[in-house]
Amino acid sequence: MQNPFKTIAVATPAPPAPAPVPVSPPVRYRFLDALRGVALCGILFVNLRDLLDPWITDFTHPVLRFYDIGVQGRFVPVFAFLFGVSAWLLYNATRRRMPAAGARVLMARRFACLLPIGLLNMLALYSGDILTQYSVTALLLLVPATFLPRGPVLAVGLVGTVAAYWMFGNSPLTAVALMITGFAAAQYGLPAWLESVTARARGLATSIFALSAAAGTALAVRQADLLVSGRAADTPSYERVAGFAGVLLAVAFVTGLSLAWRSGGGRAVLDRIFTPLGRTALTNYLAASALVQIPLHALGQWTLPSLWLLPVITVGILALQWVCSVLWLRVFHYGPVEWAWRCATRWERVPMLRR
Fold this sequence. Notes:
By secondary structure, the protein is mainly alpha-helical.
């Protein structure tokens, strides 16, 4: 007789495999692109003045005075800070797709590939190149900083920035400290805050803008007084005054532009004019040196007819680069040098054409 209580084994279906968790695409902060474009314009004013230095004879000309007081040291801090911010954003975006160890390797490879670009520019086009220093700093400091908590990194960056400006004024050390500061500030959400339209964010940005603009302007007036009176060389604190004036005005510059970005009209203007330059900043930075050096070498012994041509030439180069950048980005995703840099970093051919 068959046992009625006999257990009958029933094959149960295997549980379905869990669906892969979608990886959200990295956020692109367009204000940073526009800000990088504005900073590039200021950098090119400084670089062009340096490139034409051998052909300048009147160093007391009003144009050069304006450059020393209104341009020198005002845009390099923004460029260095943005370099640190971008380094963190790229590392964080890569970490979404792979483990932290792989993201660090890719980050190190990215800056290692930037080094020969900077060296080539320094040796062939512009001896004051900043890319070499930036790539070495990123390899030695920013990559190791990914192992550390953001709080100590930010503290080191801020203290280092103040100490570098206090001891040396505008110097390569300030750029190093600002890169570290930008790297940590990005981890605290600074890029999103710069685009935030909340009343609290607007109020804080307005306060920072007002305080930094007032302090920076006061120091710039002091710098101008020392420079015009001829006492700059005899005043040990001149470099300190000029350095702090520059970095405070750079803070006012960034927060002021962020306030403009938060309004619809300001965002449209900044985005249309400066974002194309910012998205192809590396290409434009290198191309500007070539556009100046090649004609100068062709002319040989030559003197700049009038220093009033200096800003005119710079604006002309920037206008040409803006047109080329706009047309290029209609067809391609990246600038030509940016694309080559990305391919070298990833060791693969990155799609470039827009579909």
